[in-house]
Amino acid sequence: MMLKAFFRFYEELNDFLPQDKKKHEFPFEFSQGESVKTIIEKIGVPHTEVDLILINGISVDFTERLQNNDKVSVYPVFEALDISPVIKLRPKPLRITQFIADSHLGKLAKYLRMIGFDTLFDNHYLDEEIVRVAIQEHRIILTRDRNLLKNPQVSHGYYVREENPELQLKEIVKHFQLGGTLKPFSVCLECNGKIKPVSYDEIKQFLPSNNKEEYKKPSQCANCNKVYWEGSHFLRMQQFIENLLKN
Question: Is residue 65 in a domain?
């Protein structure tokens, strides 16, 4: 038996909808007994993008079964508004901000590491491995693949809209409200390890020359031993981060 409910999706959730369903209420037919989560994903919106569902004005969880003629309002993540008293979808937001990026987002992963966020990335990650690691390590999945976010095991994920890596970084910083939690140059760009300050003598065997004056404030990755110092490349990255925060 087919039933019908009336849906309205808000803000960036409209990015997943065809033009005729964007920013207004529309009817959608479904089978009796289907959960609201199943129907939302049939419409095309990954459940990981949804932070609040109201059915006839009442907050519900993903398992709620819709009835004929229900009115359903679906909202994205609220970054600046505390909705914990009414949210029913998950116990609490994932507050430790660490990511795992899919194979399309290698440059973004390096940028996120540059500003201090633990971000796993490997060109060879399969979707199932990304999901497994995200669950085990409580990471937010960043992806350009909508189908990955429809996996029923995924609880925290974000579909990256921009294509340019610099704009992607700005998008992530804005979406997750990261501006106040940046720790630039604390994560290794190559392996995602932690960077710690070291003395010149500790790392001189890793350096391309013996001119100590070239290597101001050296630091080193505790995992892969890559060495960093405040040279011209450091100043360029610092300027990049400052420009990011201005915008």
Answer: yes
Determine, yes or no, domain membership for 85. no
DSSP the chain: -EEEEEEEE-GGGGGGS-GGGTTS-EEEEEETT-BHHHHHHHHT--GGGEEEEEETTEE--TTPBP-TT-EEEEEE--SSS--TTT--SSSS---S--EEE-TT-HHHHHHHHHTT--EEE-TT--HHHHHHHHHHHT-EEEES-HHHHT-TT--SEEE---SSHHHHHHHHHHHTT-GGG--TT-B-TTT-PBEEE--HHHHGGGSSSS-GGG--S-EEETTT--EE-SSHHHHHHHHHHHHHHH-
Note if the pTM is more than 0.70.
yes
* Amino acid at site 25: E
Round to whole Å and give the CA distance between 225 and 90: 39
Strand partners, 5: 28
Residue at 186 is within a domain: no
Q: What is the pLDDT of residues 81-118, one digit of tens each?
A: 556 677 777 766 545 689 999 999 999 999 999 999 99
> Which two structure tokens, joined as six digits, stand for 125?
């990650």
- With beta carbons less than 8 A apart as the criterion, state whether 139 and 130 touch: no
The residue range of the domain holding 12 is: 2-76
Residue that terminates a domain, selected from 134, 155, 179: 179
Count of structural domains within the chain = 3
